[in-house]
């Protein structure tokens, strides 16, 4: 993997005049609009980057954006990768390792998720303060490269507490409904049954989705502070479970996106 990372980094540096980023951003389903706030300097399609997996989802752009946001140099993944697309955990987290090699010091992650907590409603935001990993394997499975991180990385605080506190302050000051809670990561791509939603709530989940945790594990492995936020696009309440569709999820995400974007922008400017 080390050689692949170096090859990819070399390609990117040649095409971005050695752009030196401070912050990496992963944009989730329906949440690519933050890119409009970035003063874009370069853009590279995943399909043109050596060793980069290609997003197979029609609603994910599959583009790496380089630019400035609130005075900070950022790299934004406009479209993430998922285990359910058929990639390995190492492949879907490869971009995080590349961003680290390019120099990022912080990672910001967003996603669309289903609410498990009856107090958290569709359209609300949730800052992730912990997670439960129900993915079938760890992205750290296999031989460990000590140059990237330790064999057994600590996960007692995978999400940066200072950024969580700041995000909640920003939300309160701007009258944005924003909770904090535990995110459960599952394989997907199917949504959950009533019994599964009930189970996920019983084990401590406040929201459920199909991403984020692999990236967060790898970021922690490489000692990158992480902030993650979910847009709650549907409600998984077993007592009154309603059918939903991808179109509804994307529409809800887009409607809530300006609130999420405001919080992320304020956090980035405060670093």
UniProtKB/TrEMBL annotation:
| PROSITE patterns xref list | PNP_MTAP_2
Protein name per UniProt: Purine nucleoside phosphorylase
Share what the entry says about its subunit structure, partners included: Homotrimer.
Q: Which UniProt keywords apply?
A: Glycosyltransferase, Phosphoprotein, Transferase
Q: What is the protein's species of origin?
A: Pedobacter quisquiliarum
Q: In which pathway does it act?
A: Purine metabolism; purine nucleoside salvage
Per the similarity annotation, which family is this? Belongs to the PNP/MTAP phosphorylase family.
Main enzyme class:
transferase
Q: Which Pfam families match?
A: PNP_UDP_1 (PF01048)
Q: EC?
A: 2.4.2.1
Q: Name one GO molecular function term.
A: purine-nucleoside phosphorylase activity
Residue stretches making up the Nucleoside phosphorylase domain = 23-268
Describe its function: The purine nucleoside phosphorylases catalyze the phosphorolytic breakdown of the N-glycosidic bond in the beta-(deoxy)ribonucleoside molecules, with the formation of the corresponding free purine bases and pentose-1-phosphate.
- What GO biological process terms are annotated to this protein in UniProt? nucleoside metabolic process
Q: Which GO terms describe its cellular component?
A: cytoplasm
UniProt xrefs under Gene3D superfamilies: Nucleoside phosphorylase domain
